[in-house]
Input
Amino acid sequence: MQTADFDFHLPQELIAQHPSPARGESRLLVLDRKQNRLDHKSFSDLADFFNAGDVLVLNDSRVIPARLRGTNARTGGRFEILLLEENQPNDWWAMVRPGRSARIDTAILIARPGTTRAPGAVSAVVTEKNPEGHCRLRFTGGTDIKDVLNDIGEIPLPPYIARARAGQSAEDKERYQTVFARNDGSVAAPTAGLHFTETLLDKIRRLGVKVCFVTLHVGPGTFMPVKVETLSNHTMHEERFALGDETVHAVNEAKQRGARVFAAGTTTVRALESVAARNAGKLNVYAGKTNIFIFPPWHFRVVDALVTNFHLPRSTLLMLASAFAAPDETRGREVLLFAYDEAIRMRYRFYSYGDAMLIL
Output
């Protein structure tokens, strides 16, 4: 398939700049694949679609304050840093802008959020650059930079959220984090999970649904558009994930009974389907990385229903949702983009802080 097949026009005003006034109050577009029908609901109605014995899997990764501001210790030039992956304490791969100024041995003084002057308590030195242009940074000023990220870092909101103090406000610190986040490591939120409240999760559990978790640390590649013309030529970014015994048992047992597995978010789908693809359709305890790239046509071994947000044109998230809209077929793109046309017509809000979709 061609990347251009996954393009669509979205009015700029439909890109959500803030979350809904209260968590859980987003709209929910329901796509019933068997009946080829769209219904307009509220996210609080989600519990109505579960049956006793179903399983809901959520991604419990926690977003870290991964965006740092700094100045060149020699020239005073400003840098923006996005932490990507920890190698060991105080040793990280990062995206640094402007990259051309971040040469090997460049010293960067880290500033506090909302300031332009760097006190110099925490600093970093560029020790290496990889072919992708990412910088390896060695931090000094503490035994472990993770211990001070809450003081020196910002929540790394995606670039399409363009407003003053994005990532620094109390609203972003609370709402760009799921209520069940517990394992630090993501630099972008698993956004489908942002809609869930403890009240809704308790309601779902009382229906006899097993709620369990995977941990997949979301990287910045999640939001990057595919740049090659043909999808089969795209190299997917790697993300770290872990799948524990409780979730493995719950999902395998549900599949054996014929119950359904609901996945909240494309990251959850990638974790579950990555392991199932290695293990003849069943899950096993696993910790590692995945670069699975799901696009039409795709055979889903585990996931029966998908809760997801509305995604960017040409993004791998849109391609995964398209594959899920018509498993094992190539027409999923048409099915999903028809639903997107309806969402645009009805003025749904798109992307990370936007509304949600349920594909049954």
Q: What stands out?
A: DSSP finds seven helices and 17 strands in the chain.
